[in-house]
Amino acid sequence: MERSRVARREETKSSEKKMKRTKRPQKKKSGGGSGGKGPLWKKLLLIATGLFILMMLIGGGFAAYAVATAPELDEAELRDALPLKIYASNKKEITKGGTSREYVSIDEVPEVVKDAFISIEDRRFYQHNGIDFRRLGGAIIANVTDGFGSEGASTITQQVVKQSFLTFDKTITRKVQEQWLAIRLEQDYTKDQILEMYLNKNYYGQNSFGIQTASKAYFNKPVNKLNYAEAAMLAGLPQRPTAYDPIKGDPKLTKWRQTQVLNAMQTTGVITEAQRDKAVKQPISKLINPAPKSTKDESYDSVIFDMVSKELEDDFGLEGKDIYGQGLKIYTSIDKPMHDYMNEAIKKDQIVKMPEYAETAASAVNTQTGEILAVVDGKNPGKGTARRNYANEPHQPGSSAKPFFAYGPAIENDKWSTAKQLTDKPTEVNGKEIGNYYDGYRGTNTIRHWLKISANTPAIQTYQEIGGDPVQAFAEKSGLKLEDDESISPAYAIGGMKHGFNTTQMAGAYATLGNGGDYIKPHLIKSIEYSDGSKIKSPVKSKKAMEDYTAYMLTDMLRDVLKPGGTFPSAGLSFDAAGKTGTTNAYKDVWFAGYTSDVSISVWTGTTKSGNNNGAGLSGPYNSTMAQQIWKDFITKTRDRTPAPFEQPSSVLSIGNELYVKGTKEPVVEKKTVPAPTGLQASYDEDTKSGELTWNYNDAALRANGYDDVSFEVTMTDADGQSSTVGTSSTNRIAISGLKPGRSTFQVVAKASGEKSGPVSTTVTVTDPEAEEPTTDEPTTDEPTTDEPTTDEPTTDEPTTDEPTTDEPSTDEPTTDEPTTDEPTTDEPSTDEPTTDEPSSNDGANAQNNSNVPAERNNNPNNPNNSGDDSED
User: Is 399 a catalytic residue?
Assistant: First the structure.
C-alpha cells in the first residue's frame, strides 16, 4: 500500500518536470503590447470601416431628409419669371424690376443661339442626366485655360432648378436638393424643354426677361434672325446683366464677356477661328440696334432698380441668374418722401430756374450708416435707351476736392493745426503758374482761411509738401479712388483731374468727415429676402479712413465756408453744418457738397459735351450759385429733425478759434487788427430833429485779416459833454435824433470776434434858437482821430454814396474757386452718349432774388469766358 502511494507521488513529480521541459515561451506581438489580441492596422481598419459606415448612415439620412423636404416640381414656376420687388425704407414697394417678357418656343430659337449658350454654360448638356460629375473638375481647368467665367459649376438643368425653386445660400441641404431636383427634371422633361425654360427665364438687362425680349431690346429683331456675334453677346449677359449691358454698361466689359463666349464657341467647334476673329473686331456700338422705346416718361424710380442691380452684383457677389426671376424682395434705405421731393424739385424747376442747356444731379447719404437716401438722376435725363443717370457719371470736382487732396492728408500725416501758415504767392506746376479765382495774391494766412475762401496756391503748396502718394492714399480711403489710367499730380489738389467723381461718391466722402473719420461705402440695400422667407443683410462694413482729429478739424474749417467771408456766405442755416463749393473753368462743373451729423448731400450742376450748350459751361454768375441754393433747399426741407452738432473729440485741442492735435505743440495764433470804417458822414434835419450817420467799410480787408462778421458800435458826446451809446449796427448806417443845441461828436468803431478797430469821428452842430447869430446847420466831417485803420486800402478811394454797402463779400471777391490748371476739365465719358430728347421749355436765369451772393469765377486772364462781373437781380 505504502509503495503504491510513493510510486504514485514519484510519477506525478516526473510528469510535472516533463511539462516544464516542453513548455515554450510566448513571442511578443509586433506593434502592440503583450496584452493585445491582434495587429494595430487591423484595429485602425476596423475603426475606419465603422466610421465610414456611420458617416454613410448619417449622410444617407441627411440626404433623405433633404430630398424629403425638397419642393415639388411645378411647371408654372419652371416657366414663369417672377419680378424683383424693391421696397423703400418705409417698407412700401418702389418698383417691380424686369417684368417685361415675350415667351418664345424652342422651335423658334436657331441653332447658333443654342450653341452660344451651351458652349459657355454647359458643354455636355445633351450628355448628362442633370448632374455633370466631370464638370466639377472640368470647370476649374476651363477657367484656367479659357479665362475666368468661361464655364460655371452648375449645369443648365441645375440653373433652371435654382431659378425656379431654391434660394442661393450656399448650404449642403440646398445643393443636395438642387441635384435631386435636377435629376427629377431630366426625367420629366426633354432636353429641349429644359433649354426652352432656361432661355426664357434668364434676365438680360434693359428690363428684359427671356431671349426673345432681349433680342428685340438690343437688336430690334426676333431671336430667329440673330447671327453668331449677336448670340454670343446675349449668351454672356445673364452672368452680370448690369455690368455687361451693351447700352448702359461698360463697353470694354461687354466686349470682354462676348469674347469669352466666342472663344467657347470656337473651342466646341460651332464657329471657326475666322468667324471668332471677325466678331471680336466688330465694335459693340456697331453691333447693337436698340428697338424704339415708348415716348412715355420713365419714372425716376428706374434709377433705383439700376443701382440695386449693380449692388447685388458688386457687393453681394450674386450673378444675374441668381437675382432675376426669383421674386426676390429687396429692402432699401431709400427715403421715399425725400427722394420724391428732390427729384420733383429739380425736374420742375421749383428751387431755381435752370437754363435749358444745364443739367444737375444729386445724392443724399446717411452720414452715420452710409445708406443712400435719395438720388436725382438729372433734370432731363432722357428716355428709353437714351436715358442717362447724371448722378452716376463722373464730373470734375473743382475745389470740392481740396479737403481730400490737400488739407486732409496734411492734418492726417503731418498733424497740421488749422492755424498752419501758408503764403498765397505765385506757384508753378510743371512750368505753369497757377492762379486764383481772384486777382493777385493775398499774402500769408492760415489754412483755415485759405480753405474758407478757396484759394488755389496754398492748396497746391500743401500737396507739394505732403507728396502725391500720401494724398492719393488718403483720398482713396475716403472713397475717392482714381481710375487706373490716371496719374495723380498737384493739379488734383484743386480738382483738375482726368475723370472726377459722381455725386454719390462725393456725398460718401463728405459723410466720412461727419462720421468721425469712418468711411462706409454708399449703398442702398439693407437686406434681401428670398422666396422661402430667409434673409441676407448687407455685407457693407465701416472702414477707418482717417483719424477722428482729421475729420473734426476739416469739419470745423468747412463750417466757415457757410459763414460770411466764405464761398457760401448766404447759407444762413440755424443748425450745425459744413461743406465746400467747387467750380471748374467756365462753370462747366459747379458743386456744393455739404453735410450735417445725420445726412450728407452733394449737388452738381453743369453742362456736358453732348448738351445743348456744346459743353461751353454755365453762363452768368448767378448760374454759378445754383448748386448752393439747391443744396440749401434740400438740407433744410427734406429732414424732419434738427441734426445734432458735430462733437469735438478728445484728440483735438483749441486755442482761440484754431484747433490742433493733442500731443503736438500749441500753435501760435496771431490776431490781426480789425480795419476801421472810413468816410463817416452825418446828415441832420433840425426841423424834424432826425438824421443818420453813414460810413464805408472794406469787407475784403476784414476777411484778409481772418475775420468773418463785423458790426459797428456808435457812441456820442453831446453838447453838454455827456457820453452815451447810440447803438450797434450790422449795416453801414444808423439813425440819430433829438440832438441838443450845440456841437455833438459821433464815433464809430468796427467790432469782429471780440476785437475792435480804431475810431472814426464826425460832428453835428445844432442851432440854438435863442442865439443871436445861429451857426450853420451843415455837418462837419472829421478824419479818424487815430493813425488806424491798419488796412492797406487807401481811404481816398472809398465811395461817398449815402447808400450802405452790403456786408456780403464785395464784388471783387467772387466766391467760386476756379482751378486755372490746364488739366482736362471734361467730365464726360469717352463714349458718345446720346443727349436727352426732352429739353426744358424754360430759359434764362432765375428770377428769384440773388441777395448779392457773389458768383465764383476764374480770373485767369487767359480764360476768355470770364466776365469779371457779379450780377444782381
Answer: yes
- In angstroms, what CA-CA distances link 805 with 426, 440, 695, 814? 32, 24, 9, 16
Cβ atoms 558, 595 nearer than 8 A: no
Task: Give the rounded distance of the alpha carbon of 554 from its chain centre.
Answer: 19
∠ CA(285), CA(275), CA(252), 5° rounding? Answer: 35
Please give the helix or strand (H or E) that residue 762 lies within, else none.
strand 760-766
User: Mapping DSSP to helix (H, G, I), strand (E, B) and coil, where does residue 308 land?
Assistant: helix
Catalytic-labelled residue, pool 89, 150, 309, 399? 399
Closest of 523, 577, 513, 505 to residue 546, by C-alpha: 513
- The whole-angstrom separation of Cα 398 and Cα 454 is 10
Q: Given pLDDT bands bounded at 50, 70 and 90, which one contains residue 71?
A: low
pLDDT at 90 over 80: yes
Closest CA to 625 of 871, 866, 349, 856: 856
DSSP tag of 125: T
798 grid coordinates: 472809398
Is 658 considered catalytic here?
A: no
Per-residue pLDDT band for 289 (boundaries 50, 70, 90) equals confident
77, 89, 119, 121: which one is catalytic?
121
- Rounded Cα gap, residues 522 and 384, in angstroms: 27
Lowest mean pLDDT among 604-608, 614-618, 826-830: 826-830
Quick one: how far is CA 809 from the chain centroid?
32
Q: Which of 873, 352, 871, 360 is nearest to 620 (CA)?
A: 871
pTM for this predicted structure: 0.69
Residue 19 in grid coordinates? 511539462
